[in-house]
């Protein structure tokens, strides 16, 4: 009996539309309290994936595709925090 190949989860970047493995993309989460932050593990809440580049984050913020995917408006202080987090990586 042949072994089944393990399914690799694929996700799509909300900014550029590229598809990639879940482990290669960054997840941004909005929890029940409405806080928006980078996912450090398996946080509960509505998530959106971005490529691991500042350009995709900036494009997602400019086109408002990140806010649309998270179904909320993203406050300026959270935007600054996300930009700093992407600079640090």
Model description:
With 89 residues, this protein is of the alpha+beta class. The protein is built from three helices and five strands; from the N terminus they run E-E-E-E-E-H-H-H. The strands form two sheets. The protein has a three-stranded antiparallel beta sheet with strand order 4-3-5. Strand 1 and strand 2 form a beta hairpin. Helix 1 (54-62) packs antiparallel against helix 3 (76-88). The longest helix is centred in the last third of the chain and has 13 residues, at 76-88. The termini are far apart.
**Major beta sheet, specifics?**
3 strands, antiparallel
Give the SSE string.
EEEEEHHH
**Would you tell me the structural class of the helices and strands?**
alpha+beta
The total beta strand count reads 5
Outline, from the CA principal axes?
globular
Q: How much is the average pLDDT?
A: 88
Low-confidence spans = none
Count the helices. How many? 3
What is the radius of gyration?
14 Å
- Record the strand order, biggest sheet: 4-3-5
Q: Tell me what portion of residues adopts beta-strand conformation.
A: 15-25%
Distance between the termini: 44 Å
Helical content stands at 25-40%
């Amino acid at each position: 009996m042949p072994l089944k190949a393990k399914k690799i989860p694929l996700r799509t970047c909300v900014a550029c539309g590229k598809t990639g493995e879940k482990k290669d993309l960054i997840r941004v989460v909005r929890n029940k309290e409405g806080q928006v932050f980078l996912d450090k593990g398996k946080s509960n809440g509505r998530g959106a994936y971005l490529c691991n580049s500042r350009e995709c984050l900036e494009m997602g913020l400019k086109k408002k595709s990140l806010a649309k995917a998270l179904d909320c408006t993203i406050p300026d202080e959270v935007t600054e925090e996300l930009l700093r987090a992407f600079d640090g990586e």
